[in-house]
Predict the 3D structure of the following.
Amino acid sequence: MRVNQPVTRRLALMLMLVLLGHVSSAQQKPDCTVKVTLLQVNDVYQFVPVERGSSGGLARVMTLKKEIEKESPNTLFLLSGDTISPSVESITYKGAQMIDAWNLAGLDYSTLGNHEFDFGPDVLRLRMKESKFKWIVANVIDKKTGNPFGDAPAYVIREFDGVKVGIFGLTLEETKVTSRPGPDVEFLNPCETARKMVAEIHAQGVKTVVALTHLSMSEDKEVARCSGVDVIIGGHEHTLLESVSGGAPIFKMSADARELGQIDLNISKSTGAVESIDWKVIPVTDKVKDDPQFVAINNKYGALLKDLSRVVGRSSVPLDARSAEGRTQETNVGNLIADSFRLATGADVGFMNGGSIRADELIRPGPLTKRDVLSILPFKNRVIKLELTGAMLRTALEHGVARSAEDKEPGRFPQVSGLRFTFDARRPAGSRIVELTINGQPLDDQKKYTLATADYIGIDGGDGYSVFKEARLLIPREQGQFDSDVLRLAIARKKVIAPRVEGRIKRVDKDQKQTTDCK
Ligand SMILES: [Zn+2]
């Protein structure tokens, strides 16, 4: 292990958990090398710390960055996408607050995450113009110009002490349907694009190539295998992940800057190629001091931050707002939300897609603030009411579990109120619901039922819920309350909540081992 210099040793003592790694590309004798340090964060939705202040926070990241830069002057600060949305602050500022924070923190480059398009392409263009750092975009194309979106560069080349590093950016193709890029934005295949980028960068005599990506781990692995990149700085999963594929290491940090990744590329001065890579994962905790300069951002957004800290009620149980759980099984937060929709509208059924339930944490029992509520439901969806047949409702539920065997965390997974169902994900998609009751009675395909849900799926057909488009609207979008208001009022009315998982959704194949796909 190299890189145990005084600064890093200090950090190691200071922090509870530091993961270290090292890979070497060749057997030949070490050459004279130049160290280029990549500092990585990804999926950072707020600049203030998370988990009641104990973790994350860009003011702390800034402190760590400055310390590392003293030790390693050839440092690039990278964001692997997802920052403009969703967040409580973005409801008001549409991501401008994050651009302010990144500008101050000295970010160098970011790639586009899927959530960058949540407010549409025009808002994103505006945010890109406000950025003092560069967005790097290789596979997201503006059809009108044929250029990368926002006229961003597809790649950049940087030189440090005579060695050159090329960096290109990749974004999930599924952004087309999971966000709002509009009809004029095209997403190209990541692997094909990566191959082209690596060839183009190599053709300029640059041997060291970094992919800054916002892809799923399986796509990152494919990019590593198919393109010949040296390292992938990735994101999107919200989980700390380290992997190697095609000889290239892949790194992903947890969301909201809970860790700062430090990846040191040791580049040969004579060949310009990566000779070895050292890395460590530095936890960003309340033991790290805030950079005093960051106070400018806290002051600028002070009024909003104060309003968000207002207490609206209490929970006597932990609230499970973790994304993986909400997209795979019944959760107490899913029940709380679906119940609040049903009760606020007097519908037979409350329905919410797991992917619209955010926060991605187990919220500890105790006081609940406005921020907590908005962090669970940050999209400002309107709660609408529909009338539909039993057959349509069954189709909707089938759609909701149609990817439950295929995807790890399908955003379409339904959280429900007023009904119970059992599904078997071993069966073919479209015939997985094996039992379905409403108010204790089997579902009647011919009968009409009412259903309350978010306009995102109920009207816009988001997450593929096109079946709701056929339903009759009883409460249209314009008359619907915001989902977060519905939830906040439900909590405030009860003062103390204790939602439970109560067997509304059962999966019968849960204990079965997954088969391996060796295609
Ligand atoms: Zn993402």
The longest helix spans residues 58-71.
